[in-house]
Structure formats: C-alpha cells, structure tokens
Write the structure tokens for this entry.
Amino acid sequence: MVFTTSKFLALFVALVFVGAISIDEVNGAGECGTTSPDTMAFRLAPCASAAADSNAQVSSQCCSQVQTFTQNPGCLCAVLLSNTAKSAGIKPEIAITIPKRCNLANRPVGYKCGAYTLP
C-alpha cells in the first residue's frame, strides 16, 4: 500500500488533532482549576494538626488558607480528600470541621463533600 503525500499529511493532521484533544482533557480544569488538588493540599500545611485532632487549636494561618477555598467548596473537598492529605494523616471527618472551627461566616454550610457534609 503506497501512501501519497496528501494521505500521509491527512493522517498526520488527524493524529495531531486526536493528541491535542487528549492532552486538553488531561490538563483541563478540575475542581481546583488547572492546579491539582494534591498540589493545592500543600497550601493547607498550617492545618495539619487541626485536621488530625478535633481538639487541636486551629491557627490563624490555617484559617487564612481555608478562607481562600470558601469560594470554591468543590476544590476544598477535593483537597481534603486528596492522596496528599491522606498521606499527611489528615482525617476528612475532622478536616471538614475546620471552616466552622475558624468561624468563617461565608463557609459553604451543607455542602456535600464525598461522604461528609460541611457543618
């Protein structure tokens, strides 16, 4: 079977197009925009002790970081349920209480976060 230049060019363009669509789907915007929840989880490092122990004091640095997520509760949930958070010993059932423990007035009360609901 002999490929002509135009057939080869058409095949090449089709493969590039399919590849571009696949790359766009992989790098598309998720819960946290173009940044992965695992990467965003590092922003909540000041919350580590408060997210592992419901009796731990929530620091002002933690509350400040959590405040940045209140406009995007889907991202907050994705971060709290991320592999990075799990690896760091974060307990989602405790971490989900941090916005309330910070007394954030604009927290997304009642937002469903996996098996948890934001209080």
